[in-house]
Write a structure and sequence with these properties.
Mean pLDDT: 77
Helix content: over 70%
Number of helices: 6
Largest sheet: none
Shape: rod-shaped
Structural class: mainly alpha
Number of strands: 0
Low-confidence stretches: none
Strand content: under 5%
Length: 140
């Protein structure tokens, strides 16, 4: 039950766990090359690379230029590692956006309740309903 209630928060914290590097030495070297090239101005920025043939060929060409020649299973491990890292980064960005939106809404709703004491009963019910929806979202 606890796992179900706090799954969103658990997802967020799992996105910050460092993904273990693959055991294969060549795959580790290829990951270092990709990460180093994405830190330069002319870098690939792997997060923009999907799995289309042209983009995968670009990655293979970059690795070949640096002397990291991978066979098919190694290349699959590399792509899977990089995509998992990007998925984690996307979850972190999504969580941040959800948090900002929730805080703005909560502040606005509480502001209405505090600074507008003469609201109609239906308006107050609507505000409390929205507060319940926000709390429920975070307890999902």
């Amino acid at each position: 039950m606890n796992r179900f209630i706090f799954s969103g928060i658990n997802d967020f914290f799992s996105a910050f766990k460092k993904q273990p590097l693959p055991e294969d030495h060549m795959v580790k070297k290829a990951i270092d090359i990709i990460q180093a090239s994405s830190n330069t101005d002319a870098g690939l920025g792997f997060h923009k690379i999907k799995t289309s043939t042209d983009e995968l060929e670009t990655v293979a060409q970059l690795l070949n230029e640096h002397g990291a020649i991978l066979d098919s299973p190694q290349f699959d491990k590399l792509i899977s590692y990089l995509h998992e890292n990007e998925a984690k980064a996307e979850r972190r960005r999504l969580f941040g956006l959800q948090l900002v939106i929730s805080i703005v809404l909560l502040l606005g709703l509480f502001g209405l309740l505090i600074y507008r004491p003469n609201l109609s009963e239906n308006t107050e019910k609507g505000i409390f309903s929205l507060l319940g929806v926000i709390v429920g979202f975070w307890l999902k």
